[in-house]
Design brief:
Layout lengths: L2 H13 L6 E5 L6 H15 L3 E6 L6 H15 L20 E6 L8 H12 L5 E6 L1 H4 L4 H14 E6 L4 H12 L5 H8 L2 H12 L5 H4 L2 H21 L4 H20 L3 H7 L3 E4 H6 L7 H8 L10 E4 L1 H9 L4 H13 L12 H4 L9 H16 L5 H16 L10 H17 L8 H5 L6 H35 L1 H14 L9 H8 L4 H14 L12 H17 L8 H21 L2
Parallel strand pairs: 1-4, 1-5, 2-3, 3-4
Antiparallel strand pairs: 6-7
Helix pairs in contact: 4-6, 11-12, 12-16, 13-16, 20-23, 21-23, 23-24, 23-25, 24-26, 25-27, 26-28, 27-28
Length: 594
């Protein structure tokens, strides 16, 4: 039912001298129910001498909270002294002029029937006119018993349930007018001229034109337009003649805002997808194993939009801004320059060599280029020319190409091919520092073929072996530096502290303590400080694997100090070492508590 018709029903309801029921206005989230109350119903009631009182039930978990929210609403509607029991409101005002509106019924964290029971004290016992704004669809998703109780209580309290519907064009134009009526008429005019393209986005999303009046989410559009306002201002203040581009940027902002709000899985894809043109080919032909595939699927859905004409230009600067709130102008300028210079395509693959394009929009290669690129990539794998993670990516794509019958590698050569990749992986691993974290990269890499899965497991095992070797090598180096270049020892350990490397797990306690006794007092103090500071940081608990080594260092240190304790005079170095052992006690206690 349209807003004007609903307003007439409300007028008829409040004009009745006595009523013992409430009215419910029902529709999904973002349909504009609260906006309708705030901007149409409440002003209309005020003009006619009524006191409109809005009460949100979002998050309430007890009758006491409902009562408190009711009192707050009443105090905003009419002047009331603090501490008033809202159930005594009839002692202070003419309740025939009071209209209560309970919003967000489905968002309450308590049984709806208890809310109905409380509000019935106003509705039936005091005949106060009451409205409920509700998304019943969310209540109907609850357990059978809850739905049954809700239906029983609703039958007693709610006299009419009115489905809230608005013509999308009218709803959007009214919202834009309200949002920007006091400032920025230029931006308001820009948006009002593009109401139809905005609506078309939602028509495409639900693929059912008959249901559009029930499914356009005004709240999502409102947030999107607010975010885009900043982009609009920055572009107009920085660039000339950007109207065609701004049209696409507006649609991209709304699309991404909707997905970010309702699909958390899209975050990583938005972060990792570079600025480029996306068309139907990306969704159909790009390997689904790529982490960014989800974004291609989302964007491809809208390429049939009248304004987009078969492709949509994704700008990483805008995607990142919608995720973080930080619009990096240098990146936006690069994206826009690319957009303007490449005519109808933001794809960075233009003029890129076929071997690189093989792992992006490979379908735009000529047949000969595709075959030649496959051969050249394979030769580079055999010559060990790539970085470690490149081999997994190449294997993944080759498996996809084979599945699509685009490769003519015989299956009997699978073992030889796997061995070739393993040899290249071995060579690549030897040249890296395995103490760096590769876990996030590997966890985000999800192969779908058995060969690449085997290679991923092989890489994980090889990295684990290399990590142990590299940790041990760094620990041995530190022990030597402690003796030969203690100043450099301090610098190195501060660096390892920043990287959270559990380096002391690999230190030889005996060698380490023996070298401590050979330091002068200045160096000993600096070494003590860097070690103690290592375990004072907020992430000290990440070093729990080092506890055993620290205990061994402390015990051996105390053992040597005990042997040398045969004089009445304590050397300053001995005092410093004893203090160091005490510090180690505190460190061990701290990180052992985890």
């Amino acid at each position: 039912m349209q807003p004007n018709d609903i307003l007439k029903i409300i007028d008829n309801y409040i004009e009745k001298p006595e009523t013992d029921y409430a009215i419910m206005i029902e529709q999904g989230w973002g349909a504009g129910k609260t906006y309708f109350w705030n901007n149409t119903v409440a002003p209309h009631l005020l003009e006619n001498g009524y006191f409109p009182c809005h009460i949100t039930l979002n998050g309430v978990s007890s009758i006491e909270e409902v009562s408190t929210r009711t009192l707050l609403g009443l105090r905003q509607a009419v002047y009331l002294k603090p501490g008033l029991d809202p159930l005594e409101i009839d002692q202070y005002i003419d309740i025939q002029k009071l209209v209560l509106c309970y919003d967000d019924l489905e968002r309450a964290n308590m049984d709806v029937e208890d809310i109905f029971g409380y509000t019935n004290l106003y509705i039936e016992h005091k005949n106060i006119k009451t409205l409920f704004l509700c998304n019943e669809g969310k209540i109907h998703e609850r357990e059978d018993e809850q739905r049954k109780k809700y239906a029983e209580c609703k039958e007693k309290i709610i006299g009419k349930t009115i489905p809230f519907k608005q013509l999308p064009r009218v709803a959007l134009e009214q919202m834009i007018d309200k949002l920007y009526q006091k400032y920025d008429s230029k931006y308001k005019d820009f948006l009002k001229e593009r109401v139809d393209p905005i609506i078309e986005l939602f028509e495409i999303e639900i693929n059912d034109y008959k249901k559009i009046d029930r499914n356009i989410n005004l709240r999502t559009v409102k947030h999107s337009l607010s975010d885009f306002h900043y982009i609009y201002d920055k572009c107009n203040n920085t660039f000339d003649n950007l109207i065609p581009e701004l049209d696409q940027f507006l649609l991209l902002t709304i699309i991404l805002s909707k997905e970010i709000k309702f699909n958390s899985g899209i975050y990583s894809a938005i972060e990792k997808t570079k600025t480029q043109k996306v068309d139907r080919s990306d969704s159909l032909l790009r390997p689904k194993i790529e982490e960014t595939a989800l974004l291609y699927d989302v964007l491809e859905k809208y390429t049939g939009h009248t304004m987009l004409r078969g492709s949509i230009n994704y700008l990483h600067s805008i995607g990142n801004y919608l995720l973080t709130g930080n619009l990096i102008m240098t990146e936006l300028k690069e994206d826009i320059d690319s957009f303007q210079n490449k005519q109808e395509s933001l794809s960075p693959i233009i003029n890129i060599d076929p071997e690189t394009q093989l792992f992006d929009r490979y379908w735009e290669l000529d047949d000969n280029e595709f075959s030649s690129a496959i051969d050249n990539v394979m030769k580079k794998v055999e010559s060990k020319k790539y970085l470690l993670m490149d081999y997994l990516r190449i294997s993944n794509h080759f498996a996809f190409f084979r599945k699509e019958n685009l490769l003519n590698f015989p299956e009997e050569n699978d073992k030889k091919l796997i061995d070739t990749f393993k040899e290249a992986i071995d060579f690549a691993i030897e040249s890296i520092d395995a103490t760096k974290s590769y876990s996030s990269v590997l966890s985000g890499f999800d192969p779908t073929d058995s060969e690449t899965s085997q290679l991923k497991k092989y890489v994980e095992n090889k990295l684990k072996e290399k990590r142990e070797q590299d940790y041990q090598s760094k620990a041995n180096e530190l022990t030597q530096l402690l003796l030969q270049q203690p100043d450099l020892f301090v610098k190195k350990l501060y660096k390892y502290n920043q990287e959270n490397l559990p380096i002391f797990m690999y230190i030889d306690p005996t060698q380490f303590v023996n070298n401590l006794f050979k330091l002068n007092n200045r160096n000993l103090t600096e070494v003590r400080n860097v070690i103690v500071n290592r375990y004072q940081s907020f992430n000290a608990y990440s070093y729990t694997l080092e506890v055993k080594t620290l205990i061994d260092i402390r015990d051996y240190l105390l053992e040597i100090l005990g042997r040398n304790n045969d004089t009445s005079i304590v050397l300053l170095s001995t005092r410093l070492l004893k203090q160091f052992s005490d510090d180690l006690n505190g460190v061990i206690d701290k990180i052992s508590l985890r």
